[in-house]
Amino acid sequence: MDDIQRTLLEQVAGLHEMPSGAYNIRANGKSSERATTAHIDIVTKTDKQGIDIVIRPGTKKESVHIPVVLSESGLTEMVYNDFYVGDDCDVTIVAGCGIHNSGDSDSRHDGVHAFYIGKNSHVKYVEKHYGSGDGKGSRIMNPETRIELGENSFMELETVQIKGVDSTKRLTSAKLAANAKIIVTEKLMTHGTQTAETCFQVDLDGEGSSANIISRSVAREESQQIFLSKINGNNRCKGHSECDGIIMDSSKISAIPEITANHPDAELIHEAAIGKIAGEQITKLMTLGLTEAEAEAQIVNGFLK
Amino acid sequence: MLELQNLCFQISEETSESANDNHPNGLTSEKNTSREIIKNINLTFDDHSLIAITGPNGGGKSTLAKLIMGVEQPTSGRILYNGMDITHMTISERANQGISFAFQQPVRFKGIKVKDLLALAAGDSRKKSDTQKTAELTVSQRKAPSLKLPDACDFLSKVGLCARDYLNRDVDASLSGGELKRIEIATIIARNTPLSVFDEPEAGIDLWSFNNLIQVFEDMHQESGNSLIIISHQERILNIADEIVVLADGSVTARGRREDILPELLKGTESCKFYTSSPATPRS
Predict the structure, then answer these.
(1) B93 CA: distance to closest CA in chain A (Å)
(2) Does A289 contact B142 at a Cβ distance shorter than 8 Å?
(3) Which residue out of A217, A274, A287, A298 would a mutagenesis test of the B interface target, given it has the greatest number of B Cβ atoms within 10 Å?
């Protein structure tokens, strides 16, 4: 692993060295490092690119890291990772993709992550996307996440994309069984001519299930973002989605909510607010001695923290 | 020393909506005419003094405070601070010259914590003693503001808040209006600048023991020797002022020592000779 790959790894997985617990590091199209534990197995798929991550029932306080780094220009890959999480687990899964492209060809990573989560489990899933390199080639990532959440299970999903990804289409779909709960937090910032499209689709199938989708995004310069959220309440359930967007320069953000109650006891709420930074926020920070640019940076950093 | 020289502020009627609360005639609908909010004001604020500005609603008090901080730009006239012309300085430059401003309606931020705001305020005050420091140093200090816990406790306890409960809270809609107002005042305490302007600090903190607020102002004034300009309608605040300025209809209708002005004000606004819109009476 070279320095560029190490930097990417640090950005997407917060890793300075090999993590403890199970991990699989994919670099330039192949698995480069792997470790399993007594409770967590990682198996290479034989029919297509990707891995199966099998977490045994009752696994507690363990983590899995599966970062992907691409530092070769012009590399395109499609990877399928399936997570089988047993009943009564409490695990943290850190995924993420870093692309360094200093060449003129596009580098692209498309990943489909499927989660099959049993009953009474708690899964925290963190996914970070990062791009670097000054080549003309684009850095493209299209992650798809499919989730099936068993009874009484709880999933926290955090996605972060702050820098350097030219084009991204993110599709996340979840089906929830009785009393299952999902909280999705998305943090997104786009620059230049980047485009980012996010679609969340949640089916609240089980009685007492709930979903909370929170998106905070900042679009700068000429970049464009589309945020779609669809929540279907198919039982007695609670669904809430919230999109907060800051537009700067000549960027564009669309928020498209869709909430459908297919059951009389479904309670669904969508909130969306898009606008530039409030002038009085900048004024307040300027009265503390910050310049206008410093005030703006402080507000954006806080918003995406 | 802060000097306002022939200060005027006009708005054109098209923009009158945003300034309605600053003027009793704010709802007039004449178009393409300009309206004077501040009319040729001349005032001097000495160092180490506590000056209260009072007067009827819409008399121009908040506008005057905003002109001092640079939130609004005067139509004509000059503002001098310690002999330096700050009329065209930005808000940041004035802040770095040692002026603080407490908003009447404090601003909320998503994602900025109470400790972040206090750290920015305190960090800035550390360097204000030497405003000649290089800009680079200033920027680097601000990027990583550090706030010592005892200091944070001190700033917050002065406004009646416990640091443990508030430092990690976002300065957002989860805070009540009164909590927000106290945090606003705590940022001014943290800045500890030679001049602080408070725009109706008492508004919204009814439940907080008023004595604490009075104590904060007395400490800032007497212990630190800083100057305070406080816009207020509260007798108890007027009562601790060295001097009182009465502003009505954009003009100074009275100015003098508290002992001379306050008894007149307390006779009741109906009969008070200062609460009229007559032209400014010259200081004796």
Answers:
(1) 7
(2) yes
(3) A287
pLDDT at A163: 82
Name the pLDDT band for B284 (thresholds 50, 70, 90).
very low
pLDDT for B217-271, tens place per residue? 998 898 888 999 999 988 889 999 999 999 999 999 999 999 999 988 888 655 5
E strands within chain B? Answer: 2-12, 34-45, 50-54, 76-81, 84-85, 99-102, 195-199, 227-231, 243-248, 251-257
- pLDDT of the residue at A55: 97
Q: Which residues between 192 and 221 in chain A have a beta carbon less than 8 angstroms from any beta carbon of chain B?
A: 216
Taking only the tens place, the pLDDT of each residue in B136-147 is: 333 334 444 578
Q: Is A304 on the interface with B (CB under 8 A)?
A: yes
Q: pTM of the predicted model, to two decimals?
A: 0.80
3-state secondary structure of B140: helix
Q: Six-digit token pair at A85?
A: 């999480």
Q: Is A280 on the interface with B (CB under 8 A)?
A: yes
As a whole number, mean pLDDT of residues B206-210 equals 62
Residues in B touching A273 (Cβ below 8 Å): none
